[in-house]
């Protein structure tokens, strides 16, 4: 969500369009697609309940009134989906493991049926020549744990580490790369501070311990994965440049604070072993120094999810709304609309150059403390099978990524969000991020034009002359 608070002129999309071949990426560059369990698996009757089951059942929480009870029914159709991944030509599949499918109550008794599903999925991927990249937590907290306090409680971190050990014991022999958490910033902000996502708490700054407990859970999970023999571990954090609405001191101060909360609050402890100035005092957590040693254990990869930059100004001088999410006026910052760029069907500005800006700023900020990067999510929401806008989006962002690589940023892979249209959280089924269209009545999968474009682009990468 945020790396640098800046103002000035922000250039539009690159003039190189999707009609020209992509520049050449390194031969060992990892190409992949991403999904998450709650958004695609369905089979709600074969797992424990999660916070999203409860949230979606509450009228008004999900905009189209839908649930993920069936979603894409990936649980029963995973072989078909793995075939789509194989035929696309990518080398990796980033999926998430459903905690309540593995441990229906979040602790103690393990569901063998749940673990068997991930066993079958990993075997299918290996047979297809696709690297499995599981994410252990993508927001679907077991409901029993939430009812006991969830991520507001410190002991949640220990529960998570125990769950990580269970999963690693079952599938770790075939999994080369692990992701612990997905976007703890969004889970804290939208789920606990603003109440727009599950579990629906509106705690504002009282949600800061949720951030710390997730980071501690990550650190303890790294320990558990290492003990199980894992050698390639990372996290997936969301990041993007923060632009101040103007050079006015109030706007710059607001943008700096937003940048701190949505980026540095999550990256600094992981990469520098400390919280930004002022945050530790707000946390007031006993044993914080010892926790930070656990949180900052060395990582093999650092995952970056990028979608858009954010413009921020002082409160009370603009609408204070981001992607349809209203920001309370008592917050010391307010998002602003970014003008002059194309927009996705979600209303997000399409700014490929901000992607390169993010990566260059990130390297400048963290230097040699920064592990090799994986772009663990990048994508957009558009309707239709002939999704030329998505092709333009991917083309522009891959060119921006290549510019960052050429400038020396160590990026080892890129994952498109998402393989399939899916349940898009509080938006329900109103937004379509997939390379593959899903008919939610028949569950039929239909590859879109963007799927064909990416497949050909990857073939060109494999067979173009070296140095193109």
From TrEMBL:
Entry keywords, A to Z: Carbohydrate metabolism, Cellulose degradation, Glycosidase, Hydrolase, Polysaccharide degradation
Entries under NCBIfam families matching the protein: BGL (TIGR03356)
UniProt keyword Hydrolase, yes or no: yes
Name of this chain's protein: Beta-glucosidase
Entry EC no(s): 3.2.1.21
One Pfam family here: Glyco_hydro_1
Organism: Streptomyces cavernicola
Keyword Hydrolase: yes
Record's compositionally biased regions (Polar residues): 1-18
Source organism phylogeny: Bacteria, Bacillati, Actinomycetota, Actinomycetes, Kitasatosporales
Region Disordered, residue ranges: 1-21
Gene Ontology MF terms: beta-glucosidase activity
Alphabetical list of InterPro entries matching this protein: GH, GH_1_N_CS, Glyco_hydro_1, Glyco_hydro_1_beta-glucosidase
Family that this chain belongs to: Belongs to the glycosyl hydrolase 1 family.
Reaction(s) the record says it catalyses: Hydrolysis of terminal, non-reducing beta-D-glucosyl residues with release of beta-D-glucose
């Amino acid at each position: 969500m945020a790396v640098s608070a800046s103002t000035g002129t922000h250039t539009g999309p690159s003039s190189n369009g999707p009609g020209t071949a992509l520049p050449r990426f390194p031969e060992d560059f990892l190409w992949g697609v991403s999904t998450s369990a709650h958004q695609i698996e369905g089979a709600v009757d074969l797992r424990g309940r999660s916070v999203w089951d409860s949230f979606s059942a509450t009228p008004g929480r999900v905009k189209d009134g839908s649930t993920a009870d069936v979603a894409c029914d990936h649980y029963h159709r995973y072989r078909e989906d793995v075939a789509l991944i194989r035929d696309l030509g990518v080398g990796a599949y980033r999926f998430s493991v459903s905690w309540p499918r593995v441990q229906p109550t979040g602790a103690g008794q393990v569901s063998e049926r749940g673990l068997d599903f991930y066993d079958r999925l990993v075997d299918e991927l290996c047979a297809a020549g696709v690297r499995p990249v599981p994410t252990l937590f993508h927001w679907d907290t077991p409901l029993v744990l939430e009812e006991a306090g969830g991520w507001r409680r410190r002991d949640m971190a220990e529960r998570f580490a125990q769950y990580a050990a269970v999963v690693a014991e079952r599938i770790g022999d075939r999994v080369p790369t692990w992701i612990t958490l997905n976007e703890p910033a969004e889970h804290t902000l939208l789920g606990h501070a603003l109440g727009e996502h599950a579990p629906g708490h509106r705690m504002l700054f009282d949600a800061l311990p949720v951030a710390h407990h997730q980071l501690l859970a990550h650190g303890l999970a790294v320990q558990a994965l290492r003990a199980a023999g894992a050698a390639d571990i990372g996290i997936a954090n969301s990041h993007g440049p923060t632009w101040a609405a103007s050079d006015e001191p109030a706007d710059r101060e607001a943008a700096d604070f937003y940048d701190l909360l949505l980026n540095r609050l999550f990256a600094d402890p992981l990469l520098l072993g400390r919280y930004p100035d002022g945050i530790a005092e707000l946390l007031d957590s006993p044993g914080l120094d010892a926790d930070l040693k656990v949180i900052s254990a060395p990582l093999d990869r650092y995952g970056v999810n990028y979608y858009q930059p954010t413009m921020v100004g002082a409160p009370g001088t603009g609408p204070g709304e981001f992607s349809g999410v209203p920001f309370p006026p008592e917050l010391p910052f307010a998002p602003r609309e970014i003008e002059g760029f194309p927009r996705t069907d979600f209303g997000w500005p399409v700014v490929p150059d901000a992607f390169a800006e993010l990566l260059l700023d990130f390297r400048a900020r963290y230097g040699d403390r920064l592990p090799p990067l994986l772009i663990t999510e990048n994508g957009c929401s558009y309707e239709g099978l002939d999704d030329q806008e998505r092709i333009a989006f991917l083309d522009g962002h891959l060119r921006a990524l290549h510019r960052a690589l050429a400038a020396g940023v160590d990026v080892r892979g890129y994952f498109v969000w998402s393989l399939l249209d899916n349940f898009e959280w509080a938006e329900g089924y109103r937004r379509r991020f997939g390379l593959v269209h899903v008919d939610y009545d028949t569950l039929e999968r239909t590859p879109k034009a963007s799927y064909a474009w990416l497949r050909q682009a990857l073939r060109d990468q494999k067979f173009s002359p070296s140095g193109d």
